[in-house]
Design brief:
This protein is α+β, with helices and mostly antiparallel strands. Helices cover 29% and strands 26% of the residues. It comes from Penelope pileata.
Length: 223
């Protein structure tokens, strides 16, 4: 009986030892997998490119406002205007329309002030002129065309936009694509302007040129 007891105890201890060794190996393997997975995830996060405001390609310096904008695509997709990671106008927001789309931003704080669109095909240019005249000094003005932004423009309207820093407004024509960022009281020509002419030989869409996009950093207005 004593011999059998010794054998049973020995078998029990051997079984316990084998099970513990197998369990320890599995635990080490699982921990190794977890640590390896964590290291890979950390490496992936470290190599992921940083995202800047409005999705622009690089960060803006201090005392500058990040912006990105795009004209409309034919008469199907409306323009988009983003300032300081705040989408001011877009088709998703349902506040864009045919003609010239305008967003106003406070030049000192970067806060949005107003958004409007003016139909330059079937509308009247007079409300647009009054709106342009009402813009206060120090206001950042962003504009983008959709469908057609030029048919109803007259000399007075073009002159008022030119005073905001635009150089292309004098030649903006039927169904041209155009984006512009300037300011009231700028007193210089704005570096932020893109213009593509409507040309049946080069148009990306039937009757309309390709979308024009622009991004940059707007200097904050200083007192």
């Amino acid at each position: 009986g004593a011999a059998k007891l010794v054998v049973v105890v020995a078998i029990f201890l051997l079984t316990f030892y084998v099970i513990s060794q197998v369990f320890e190996i599995k635990m080490e393997a699982n921990l190794g997998h977890i640590f390896a997975r964590s290291a890979l995830d950390a490496a992936a996060r470290s190599t992921k490119p940083p995202r800047y405001k409005c999705g622009i390609s690089k960060a803006c310096p201090e005392k500058h406002f990040a912006f990105k904008m795009a004209s409309g695509a034919a008469n199907v997709v409306g323009p988009k205007i983003c300032v300081e990671d705040n989408v001011l106008m877009s088709g998703v927001k349902n506040n864009v329309g045919r003609g010239i789309n305008v967003a106003l931003v406070n030049g000192k704080t970067g806060e949005p002030l107003d958004t409007k669109f003016f139909d330059m095909w079937g509308g009247d240019v007079a409300p647009f002129i009054e709106f342009l005249k009402s813009i206060q000094d120090g206001t950042i003005v962003l504009m983008g065309t959709y469908d057609d932004g030029a048919t109803k423009l007259n000399e007075e309207a073009r002159k008022l936009i030119a005073e905001l820093g635009s150089t292309s407004i004098t030649s903006l024509g039927f169904r041209d694509n155009w984006v512009f960022c300037g300011g009231k009281g700028i007193k210089t020509k704005s570096p932020f302007e893109q213009h593509i002419k409507n040309n049946k030989d080069t148009n990306k869409y039937e009757g309309w040129p390709e979308v024009v996009e622009m991004e940059g950093c707007i200097p904050q207005k200083q007192d």
